[in-house]
């Protein structure tokens, strides 16, 4: 009788532990409340840049600046865009929040990128990537509650966010990671 009570107590403890573990594991799973493809952003010329057109391809979002020590990464971004055009879209998002390194107007930014680096990948309007005015795209990219993957913060210009073919965040790469780094290309 005593053995039966002990066995029953152990069995109930295991069931309780498994139920609690299952509940805790499931409670940490976050489902995004907005699809990446529903976020509206304007292109550098002021037209809506419909992210839906990129479904089925990976997207590399990069906050860019014309007067930054990392500005030469435009060459690598263009190379990445050209080499993997069939499976990747690079999108440059001008931002002036880090050292005032993107002071230009849209036409100046576009001209600078095309003339100096031959950029032909999409560029967007100038946006905020942090703070109270953070663009909804960067809210999605940096908040686990929205992207269901991770929280992050944008540390400097040329930070990169890679999204998969179905619009799920894969990873973030800081400015020091060059566009053609195997850290990025191995995921393509």
Automatic annotation (TrEMBL):
Family assignment from sequence similarity: Belongs to the glutathione peroxidase family.
Pfam family, one: GSHPx
GO-annotated biological processes: response to oxidative stress
Source organism (scientific name): Tenacibaculum piscium
Protein name: Glutathione peroxidase
Keywords linked to the UniProt accession: Oxidoreductase, Peroxidase
Example of a GO MF term: peroxidase activity
List of catalytic residues: 68
InterPro entries: Glutathione_peroxidase, GPX_AS, Thioredoxin-like_sf
Name of the coding gene: bsaA
């Amino acid at each position: 009788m005593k053995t039966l009570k002990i066995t029953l107590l152990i069995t109930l403890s295991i069931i309780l532990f498994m139920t609690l573990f299952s509940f805790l594991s499931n409670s940490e799973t976050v489902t995004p409340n907005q699809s990446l493809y529903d976020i509206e952003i304007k292109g550098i010329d002021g037209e809506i840049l419909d992210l839906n057109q990129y479904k089925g391809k990976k997207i590399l979002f990069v906050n860019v600046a014309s007067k930054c020590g990392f500005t030469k990464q435009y060459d690598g971004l263009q190379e990445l865009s050209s080499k993997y055009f069939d499976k990747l879209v690079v999108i440059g998002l001008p931002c002036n929040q880090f050292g005032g390194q993107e002071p230009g107007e849209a036409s100046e930014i576009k001209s600078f990128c095309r003339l100096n680096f031959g950029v032909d990948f999409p560029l967007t309007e100038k946006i905020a990537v942090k703070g109270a005015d953070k663009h909804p795209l960067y809210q999605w990219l940096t908040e686990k509650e929205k992207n269901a993957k991770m929280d992050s913060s944008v540390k400097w210009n040329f930070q990169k966010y890679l999204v998969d073919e179905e619009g799920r965040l894969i990873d973030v790469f800081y400015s020091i990671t060059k566009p053609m780094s195997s850290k990025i290309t191995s995921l393509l």
